[in-house]
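In the current project phase, the collection of sequences with tokenised folds has grown. A sample record is quoted in full directly below:
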Amino acid sequence: MPACERAKLPGLRFHDLRSLAATALVAAGVDVKTAQTRLGHSSPQVTLGIYARATAQNDRNAADAVGAIFAPRDGRGMKGPGRKTSQGGKPLTRENRVGAAGLEPTTSAV
């Protein structure tokens, strides 16, 4: 594409830009149906299966979310630089980490 050559991005293809847009939308937390519509895809499966890519940051976020859910009840391992916080900026604790992960709290007696 002449525009890509002028931008000093030789070899960049149109679908590379669509993939970048799909990945950016999904990584930003835009729901897949909206991303599908914005990109003009026939189904969400096309958006996710062909265009959107996994990102290192979202993989780190997923690992942190699982770590927060399975952290010891006494808070060990919940302190220190780089630890995730809840949406209110408070450190994730036993009480708020389950809600932050979007899961229902467990009951103590079943």
